[in-house]
Batch of 2 targets.
Target 1
Amino acid sequence: MAVAVQSVFHREAVDDNWRQLLRTPFRSSALQDSAAPIRRTDSPKRVLIVEDDVDSARSLHLLITDMGHKAQYAINGYVALDMVRGFRPEIVLLDLGLPGVDGFDVCKRIKNDYELKHTRVVVITGYAHDEYRVRAKAAGCDLHLIKPVPPTVIENLLEYTAAP
């Protein structure tokens, strides 16, 4: 199953921080069936969703809270930077194309803040070109996923992601 999982994640984004995630056995249905039922987690995480499309942000928020995680969402970079300090998410799901402060800058600011440096930043974007993956990694993002991301991939990502 590890080979199938690695094909979902772009090799540029697979670094030491994520090797454990990729070695963790995913549910067998996770990559084949995006309609697989979502399970509630035994280890809830705090997740901040940063997405300027309000419908997408609300949908992802609903999905993640249905999984049993605590989630909040921000619709621009300014709000995200304010929320991240108070909410203290373990994981930030970050779109790159945000109004005002873009996702690259949000990621840099999170990773450069001593109190937030262990926060996982997962980019979920429509920007698929290599140039964006390189820029996101340089900004400090831990993983770069291309939209649309199946719910089961989100489920596994949150279930098997631990702090460094």
Target 2
Amino acid sequence: MGRSFGTGEFLFLLKAIPSTLLLSLGALAGGAIVGFFIAILRIAPSRPLRWLATGYIGLFQGTPVLMQLFVTYYGLAVLFNIQVDAWPAVLLAFSLYSGAFLGEIWRGSIEAIPRAQWEAAACLSLSFPKQLWYASCRKRRASRSRRRSASRSS
């Protein structure tokens, strides 16, 4: 006695695909920006910055996405008297949520860089951002050359 799924529903779903893709790409781009800064804060030499990033990750990974959507849409209006349209609110909530996960993933990738590369960069008196850049670039180049040599040998 349930409702059947007909062509009208199917066409409705087809019309929603471009909006879904646009929202997904926007949230991924926003999450990448947030995640980059979270990853940098997680490995920063300053302990309060690391705590701040850890708290952010714990908050956004520990709360349901639906609650974050409600807080973004309704909470901004109530707390700060800012009325936000639905699309920017969803984009903001999804960007903050994905940024927490991407930041933690990238932090793990950065910490996987061998200590010898960090020490070599420090011996060259490079600043922390330059150490981060050159150590991670070297890691990417090395993994790319390993993949190329592995594909040639097979």
